[in-house]
Amino acid sequence: MIFATDQMQNVYVPLPFKAHMIFCIIATIVYALEIYRKRSVHYVFMMLAIDATLMMQFFNNSTAVIILAVMEGLLLGAAITFAVLESKKKKALKAAAEAAQAQQTEGEANEDSDT
Question: Looking at residues 41-66, what average pLDDT do you find?
Answer without folding.
Answer: 91
